[in-house]
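Internal QA ticket QA-208
Title: Verify multi-chain structure generation after dependency bump
Assignee: T.L.

Test input:
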Amino acid sequence: EAQVTQNPRYLITVTGKKLTVTCSQNMNHEYMSWYRQDPGLGLRQIYYSMNVEVTDKGDVPEGYKVSRKEKRNFPLILESPSPNQTSLYFCASRHDRAYEQYFGPGTRLTVT
Amino acid sequence: QKEVEQDPGPLSVPEGAIVSLNCTYSNSAFQYFMWYRQYSRKGPELLMYTYSSGNKEDGRFTAQVDKSSKYISLFIRDSQPSDSATYLCAGARSGNQGGKLIFGQGTELSVKP
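Actual output:
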């Protein structure tokens, strides 16, 4: 089954404790992105990657890091999480059609 | 000003009603316009897309774009309880890097049996 998977699905952590959210897709897509979804603000892009070792900032990159060492994986790293990073995070991937993004099931992160 | 504006609702309608969901956008460079549907505790999934202006129909769903007024609409005919979800409109530039979609806030729709 073609899909984007994320782990963990739910995470509660404390301020300053480094964490990684993993994302993997099995569709051989070149493009992958991370979004956060907040009430009243909708989905906003954090980082994206056009291929292995090629990443760039989205609209809200502060406090996040990413890496793309393999085509299928695109982990999101929070080096020192803060409460304002409490949000619902989605990983997405696509082939070459910008409109047809496939989203993962989401990771709900709470930073206390 | 947000690039894509959408009334968050919530919108509640009886089963069988015609639903109209609307967005406005400000970026004249948008060429693709999308509607994504998001069920509770799930990721968004593409429902329909339109390239440039015009209408597109898929079963009970019709997407409409008016570039002159920068208006995006989604119509749902004979709405069903299974249509209850949050609907997200989005715009994208043609060939944009990284597949950056600009989303509206989403409209929560509830269809009551």
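Spot checks passed. Chain A has a mean pLDDT of 94.
Status: verified.
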